[in-house]
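Morning. Coffee machine broken again, so started the prediction first thing and wrote up yesterday's gels while waiting. Chain of 654 residues, entered below exactly as on the submission form.
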Amino acid sequence: MAVSVSKQYMTSLVVILLFISLSSLSPTSTSHNCDPVEEEEEASSFGYVCHSNLQKCHTFAILRAKPPFYSLSDLSRHLGLDADEEYVPKGQLLLIPIECRCNGSIYEASLIKNCVKGDTFRSVSQSLQGLTTCLSIREKNPHISEDKLGDNIKLRLAIRCSCPQEGVSNASFLVTYPVGVRDSVSSLAVRFNTTEDAIVSANNKSGVVPLKPALIPLDHKPEKQGSRKRNPSKKKRSKMKLMIAVSSAIAGVCGLVTLMVFGYLHWKKETQIQTQTQKWISNKDPETRQLSLSIRTTSDKKISFEGSQDGSILDSHNTVGTTTPRKPVLEIYAFEELEKATENFSSSNHIKGSVYFGSLKGKDLAIKQVNADEMKRFDFGLLNDQSHYYNHNVIRVLGTCFREIDQDSYLVFEYARNGSLWDWIQNKLAIKNQFIESCYCFLAWKQRIKICHDVAIALKYMHRINYVHGNIKSRNIFLNEDLRGKVGNFGMSKCVTNELATEENLIESSLSPASDIFAYGIIVMEVLSGQTPDMLLGLQEVETTSLGTQETFVSEWSRLRRLLGDKEKLREVMDSTLGESYSVDSAFEIASIARDCTAEEAESRPSAVEIAERVSRLVDDDEDEEDEAVIDRESTLISESSYKPLVKKSSIID
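Came back before lunch.
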């Protein structure tokens, strides 16, 4: 009986393997119908709107070299284009010259496709890599039945294209390019020798989306990538390749079993991670569960996109755009990955508190250990707004690591190489990098003003999305490699208590945008005076009267607020390390901002928008003065401290 069962089992296994191997050798079946769900989305976004001042233009579309278009001669044969017999290596680009015309309200270029046996509307659209759609082909050829496609049948194609708008764009060509999964705005700018801003502007101030076309603005005719003549000997080798393919198929059956085993093991590992994550998320609030729809593991190469909640995004100049953006996803890291990145959370990688430095796949990370309660309180809903990811003044949340409910989890942030503003103002650990010896340094005046501006822009962004940070302080302002300020702990307002809250907030146990403004004023006072918040909020003043010297209990920051309004006495509170390397007018204006921000009545404090505008004018004025100073420097020796941080003798800092 056991022998019979064993034989039946072996017979079934052989049949299954034979079926799988035959399926792998057979051509992949293609649907003969356009997908109504996909095509409905394509129909709503197909084509670029015509400009009234330009009805047609000569431009180009791009295809990647892959079947059925491996050469320019393939384009000639299938699309009726003039081309020589050049072979292009797989993955490189084929240029298609097209005439882009305004058809109604949409630009399009007309081409004729010479069908071959087995073609369908969908297979044709897929071979053109997004330059047209299945639905468009069907609409352009209403009298052709898809079931009757075959040799010598000609299909009319509408290729997506656009013409430069005169007076708006400096580009001579807008080239239609099929975006690949690994493409990004920055990589395309490098590849086509243009700028990121030009690409974003050409695509209606939105990014590029994989597997969909994008417009690449060029001020010159695009050049073909390196191609080579097809080697005639390849025809002679074709039969040999066929024999090798058949032999490989037989060997593939054996290899398939091995792949199935490894695939199962990989699937099991991924399932464990996902199960662990979903178990954690299932006990969380609805916002966290909603976010789980858009997170992915690091091994998942498929990228998903989603529009932001308010349909707007901050561009590179911190202005509000009008198009619906695409939201990058968070990564879910395995705990083993974070252990490797931090060298098993070694003391040498410890930054401060529960934060560790990590390096993973060539990227520096700040990895924060959080308990279950903190993770539950983290405001994941904020990450639905894509502008967080592209805001240069906020430390970005890059990913998470969820563990069992009774274990600590992790938040992964971008790493700020130069530590916190507090480190620099207080001359401690000035360069907070594990691989550079600490030194005594100080920030020049212009750098301090720019950092104040960066923080103001961050507050402007956060208050625009109705988010109160609640923990604005110099320890949470981090400096990147260019010494530009970035606000940290974004999304953690419910996880911590504000140490610099105003008296009214301490009583009411509530936070508001005005409390962020007050904290910003304290930071500006630190930048001006070089004093710590404890000193600013302390009780220390000695007053001399006719009766002699006596102590009065007046807070230092109250005394500072009085001096901030007196231009003549302002030097008394300025950081002595600055010397004379600052503009008195500029210092008085920034002092006035600090005074206004720390007004006792919350209603009297300026908004983040107003602060950003005022500090922006100071930055512009300082840059104008610096331009003039550069000219004077040719004939006059001046202090270097006006232009870069002064580095004093290194010493060990406790």
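The two ends are 79 Å apart (CA to CA). Going to sketch it on the whiteboard this afternoon.
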